[in-house]
Amino acid sequence: MNANKVIPEPDDLNLELFQAIVSSGHLCIQKCRNCGHYSHPPRMYCPRCFSGDYSYERVSGTGTVYSYTLSQHSAEPAWKDELPFLTVVVELDQGPRVVGAAKIDEPTAVRLGQRVRVVPETRTDDFAYLTVVFESEQAS
Predict the structure, then answer these.
(1) How far apart are CA 22 and CA 55, in angstroms?
(2) Tell me: domain 12-138, CATH 2.40.50.840, correct?
């Protein structure tokens, strides 16, 4: 990865989320301690029961492609070596949707509903990129 790429600096609840991801080395999602509902992005109060009691729980990262877009161009010079790349919205098996990036050999073969896994790639103590790995690539 190009060293000149901007690394986001999350704050507030997003900082808590990414610190949980980085410290565990796994994808984590906010979970209400009262009713068990998973939320993403993180919220101060559960959208189901309105409790403010939550934790960040490790999840499998498995889910399905909900939506995606293929980027052929980048306005940011540091990302040009990554082209083309996919930005993928993944609906996790736990319910919430997360956004990650993927680089695959055959981007035209991506299908809605396709099984994938979201894997964090730590960049700092406070941030990890979310990478989407397609089932066909998980075996390699």
Answers:
(1) 15
(2) yes
